[in-house]
Amino acid sequence: MSATKGPWLVMLALALGTVACAPTHLTINVKSPPGTNQGRPMHMLVRAVDSQRYMTEFYADVAERVVHPDDSVVQTLVVYPGEKTQTKVKIPEESPLAISFLFTTPDGAWQVLLDTPIPGRVDIELEESRIRTDAPKKKRAPKGEGSKVEPPKVEPPKVEPPKVEGPKIEAPSAGK
């Protein structure tokens, strides 16, 4: 191997190794409790969209993609309340993925954007009319371990009651 080809081949091997490590598919796990979407099935859309389009699209624009898919639609799927759903989609090159849930009456977050680099797996938990967005609850330390944090105690301010004097009544004079 000549001195000029050596570094080039090493760089090529490193570049190929980096590409090979990035996930090519995304596994989407959806947990849908029985009361989700008022107990009715709903559509989930996975689309390759940039963040600008994601921020400016209306619900109706996304919902139309179920009936009239465009080039951005990677997959559509029906989600049934009370069932866990899993699907695998090919990750598009250099494009974020939007995962949208078409609730009958959305109340809060109804879609999520996965920016690049896209992970190999995402878990989504649904509520009645929205995607659950709160942070996972921290596990409590077993009894006796760790420090117990209590909220600060607040005492009401001490206030002296106002002094109220009764009306002054003059005694009637005897001479009148």
From TrEMBL:
Coiled coil: none annotated. The keyword Coiled coil does not apply. It holds the Pfam family IglE_N. Residues 129-168 have a biased composition (Basic and acidic residues). Keywords: Signal. Residues 44-126 form the Type VI lipoprotein IgE-like C-terminal domain. It comes from the Bacteria. InterPro entries: IgE-like_C. Residues 129-176 are annotated as: Disordered. This is Type VI lipoprotein IgE-like C-terminal domain-containing protein. It comes from Myxococcus llanfairpwllgwyngyllgogerychwyrndrobwllllantysiliogogogochensis.
